[in-house]
Specification:
Strand content: 25-35%
Number of helices: 10
Distance between the termini: 32 Å
Structural class: alpha/beta
Order of helices and strands: EEEHEEEHEHHHEHEHEEHHEEH
Largest sheet: 8 strands, mixed
Shape: globular
Helix content: 25-40%
Strand order of the largest sheet: 7-8-9-3-10-11-13-12
């Protein structure tokens, strides 16, 4: 059994809502609301859901680019933070640990500094962590660019001289510079053309095998998740509704929300017909989520208890965890 590289427990990230004449706190946007999971070494863990469900916030809070509201995260058996027990990794230790945790951002246009040339962008971390001097770091940047499918001569160019796919390759090279163990992939292909998406995914798979990487892969595209990930967590309004292996999720989805997502996925064979599950209504506001099950306002199988009782996120089959009252009925 593989070792857990990431252990997340009861993670919460709330953003305060300020209002009134004196800009006092009047509420919270519950972007991430009490989620727990592990990511094993060498695994590609997928996180999927609609826009605004808290996927990106989860990834950024795990590596503490965002300050957590509650919960704990362990990386390679080291506690990064445990809010309830008032434990925080000292800043100097966290700075050193950041070599092992990197992120590939969604927008290749906004994530690269337009005032820096490519060589400086890719090599900046090496200089910052005193792994290499500037000359050595630039040589390393050239190697990384070639590894990611770009010419070494590009070190002198600036981000505006590249296409979206090329920029994302630069972002991947930057993430690899410090030889990390874990990379948060925050919708890394969402802004790219379909033909370029396949190239970038293939590159990321090759790099994973070459450097023995572990990915948290965030996406709203189920077809990409199916191709790329080992296990998948389905997220709705800041909480997990289902977590299992990719094979099991696509063969036997149990939560009504997962079933609706899969029913909306286009099939490659036009002769295959399937029933579409159309969800009614809009996604509720994370500032004022529904009581009980958060999905009950849109669920086609809603029951009275769903409106008042929060379903437990529990294992209903080996390796298959679901948050739904229907599972209790099926077990009877």
């Amino acid at each position: 059994m593989a070792k857990n590289l990431i252990e997340v427990r009861n993670l919460k990230k709330y953003f305060p809502i300020m209002g009134g004449v004196f800009s006092r706190k009047v509420g919270d946007v519950k972007a991430v609301d009490d989620i727990s999971f592990n990511i094993e070494e060498g695994e590609i863990f997928g996180l999927v859901g609609e826009s605004g469900c808290g996927k990106s916030t989860t990834g950024r809070t795990i590596i503490e680019l965002l300050d957590p509201t509650a919960g704990s995260v362990k990386f390679d058996d080291k506690v990064i933070y445990d809010i309830e027990n008032n434990v925080r990794m000292p800043r100097n230790e966290l700075q050193a640990l950041r070599r092992d945790m990197q992120i590939i951002f969604q927008d290749p246009y906004a994530s690269l500094n337009p005032r820096m040339n490519v060589g400086t962008i890719v090599s900046e971390g090496l200089v910052k962590h005193k792994i290499a001097n500037k000359k050595e770091a630039i040589e390393k940047a050239k190697e990384l660019l070639e590894l990611c499918g770009l010419s070494a001569d590009n070190v002198v160019k600036y981000p505006h001289e590249f296409s979206g796919g090329q920029r994302q390759r630069i972002g991947i090279a930057r993430a690899l510079a410090l030889q990390p163990k874990f990379i948060v992939c925050d919708e890394p292909i969402a802004a790219l053309d379909v033909s370029i998406q396949a190239q970038v995914l293939t590159l990321m798979q090759e790099l994973k095998e070459k450097f023995k990487l572990t990915y948290l892969f965030i996406s709203h595209d189920l077809s990409v998740i199916k191709y790329f990930c080992d296990r998948i967590a389905v997220m709705y309004l800041g909480s997990f509704v289902e977590l299992t292996t990719t094979k099991r999720l696509f063969e036997k989805p149990l939560h009504p929300y997962t079933q609706s997502l899969l029913s909306a996925t286009p099939k490659s064979d036009p002769t295959i017909t399937k029933e579409r599950i159309i969800l009614k209504g809009d996604v509720p506001s994370p500032a004022n989520p529904p009581k009980g099950c958060k999905f009950h306002t849109r669920c086609p199988q809603v029951m009275e208890m769903c409106k008042t009782v929060v379903p437990e996120f529990k294992e209903v089959e080996p390796g298959h965890t679901v948050s739904c009252h229907l599972m209790d009925l099926d077990a009877r």
